[in-house]
Every structure is written in C-alpha cells, then in structure tokens.
C-alpha cells in the first residue's frame, strides 16, 4: 500500500465549549463524579449557523491548502458522518460545490457510526492503488447527537477533519503502509430513521469497543509482523477519556505513544472526526520516518486499523494550514441555556 500517501490534511473545531459541570448541574448530577467516570471535562459545540456541511468545508479547505493542490485535482470526495443534514441530498456534493471541484468526480456520503471516515479513507486508497484515480479526499465530520440527560450528552461533540490522498511523491506527508478491518453485527448503538437521538446498550458498548478495536489491531500487527514497540505514536477512537487509554495499555502501547492523539481531553467525542483528529494532532508534531498506528471504531460494529509512516512532507507542510492546537486556543465557554439556543432539542 505504500504507493498511496497522505498529501494533505486539515481540521476544523468550533470555538464554543460546554463544560461537564454545566450539564451536570442542570440534571442534578455530581460533575466531579461524571468527569471521573468518563475522563472528559468539556466538549466542542457547533454554533447555531454551523453543521456537518460547514465544518466539512472548513476542514477540506485546510487540507487542500496544506496539500498544495487545486480543488479541480480532486477526483473522489467522500464524507463520513452520522449527522448529515439531509437524509436525501449528499453532504459531499454540497461541500464539493463550495470548493469548486467541478463535475468530473466520484462522490458519496458514508455511514458507519464513528468509523465512516476511515472507511472512506480505505475506499479512496483502494481506488488510487488500482490506478483508477490519482487524488481523493476523505472527510470525517459530525455534530454528534445526544438525548438530553443521557450519558452521551457529556461527550457528544462537533468537529471535522479531512485527508487528501494521492500517489506517493516528494511532497507526501505519510505513507499508508497497510490497513485491515474487523466487523460484526453487534448492535451496541443505534438510531432508527426519523428518530432524533441514538440509543445505546450502556455498559455493553464498552465490550463492543474493546472487542473490535483489539481484533482489528491484533490482526494488522500479526499481518505485518510488528509489535507496539515498532511504533512512535498510536491513535484510537475516543468515545470517552478512558477507553483509548485502556485499550492502548492492553495492547502494549505506552502513554507517551498515545498522548499526542488524545483530543478527547479538549473537545470530547466528535464521532466520525474523532480518530481523524487524533491522527491530525500526531501529524502536527511528528518528524519524518515515524511510525503511526491507528484504529477507529464504529458502533454496529467495526474497526479499521492502519499503519502510517511519516515522510519529509510532514515537516515541510506543517505551517500551510492551521494546526489543531490553533483551534484549541480559540475556546469560548457557553452555558447550557446557550447550548440549547444553538439548536439542541430538549
């Protein structure tokens, strides 16, 4: 797979934040207990005039700038999300129109809970490796839904991240060394059409997460005959602050390998954007010739595991677009009432 590489990446995180204590106070909960239980203290909130489309656009613009390409060079545009604004009318074509890509491109929206974006990355990688296309963009964006007074309300966040993939060249940021997927019919999380908020299996979701992330991780490590010691960084989907830390330790990765990816500590869980943002955060600091291990997770259920190796473009293109840390500096805290005014239902 090392003929396919990451040519650019971009992120977008709304400036608004809602602290756990704000939500806990409304529902009469002990905020310290909630924070300790989830390992989360705040989450990012899309403003009243933001949605999956607007955030996907911002992330895509940043990726194009970092890649140094023209929008018209893009031949495939896939958006992974579980909060597409329309049930019928693709997010991808709206964003592509705003970008000025043109008409000669393949487009689709993907859904697989929080791993839809990594599935988009696999699909584009396969198209490029086959020689059918040369350039594609995979976007993960979500304004995550959560029923009021549900445990998800403390973590369900908003953000977007995108990756431009091409054939490997002198300006590439990272090789896609290999990937694998691990899937099953495990309904730990679901939302029927027309229902505003998802339902979940409570503690059963923990067992589903660990089974699939571990399954995908071990399958890819065995396939490549690698161990956690062969990597400089690791990234795992972050539904809360505890799960990625626990699975990293269980697999044999260190806290130092994991720490740069932990965007959950700052913005919560933006669903399809979660692992993409973790990878972006790692690329923001990684030097060339570093090995990165990443595993996404989507309820329902499945995981995609990847191995990346950074190239010289990772340093050369770092300042071409805003880094993830630049968005974290723009934080503005809001109250629960303001959160509701931004369009959340109660």
Write a concise keyword list for the protein shown above:
single chain; 346 residues; alpha/beta; Peroxisomal Thiolase, Chain A, domain 1; 2 domains; 9-stranded mixed sheet; 3-stranded mixed sheet; 13 helices; 14 strands; 34% helix; globular
Please specify the SSE layout and strand pairing.
Elements lengths: L3 E9 L3 E4 H7 L4 H8 L3 E4 L6 H16 L8 E5 L10 H9 L6 E5 L5 H15 L4 E9 L14 E10 L6 E13 L2 E2 L8 E2 L3 H21 L8 E4 L6 H9 L3 H4 L5 H4 L6 H10 L7 E5 L4 E11 L2 H4 L7 H5 L3 E2 L2 H6 L5
Parallel strand pairs: 2-14, 4-5, 4-6, 11-12
Antiparallel strand pairs: 1-7, 1-8, 2-3, 6-7, 8-13, 9-10, 12-13
Helix pairs in contact: 1-2, 3-4
Pfam family, one: ACP_syn_III_C
Keywords: Acyltransferase, Transferase
Protein name: Hydroxymethylglutaryl-CoA synthase
Structure described in brief:
With 346 residues, this protein is α/β, with parallel strands linked by helices. It has two domains: 4-172 and 317-341, Peroxisomal Thiolase, Chain A, domain 1 (3-Layer(aba) Sandwich), CATH 3.40.47.10; 174-315, Peroxisomal Thiolase, Chain A, domain 1.
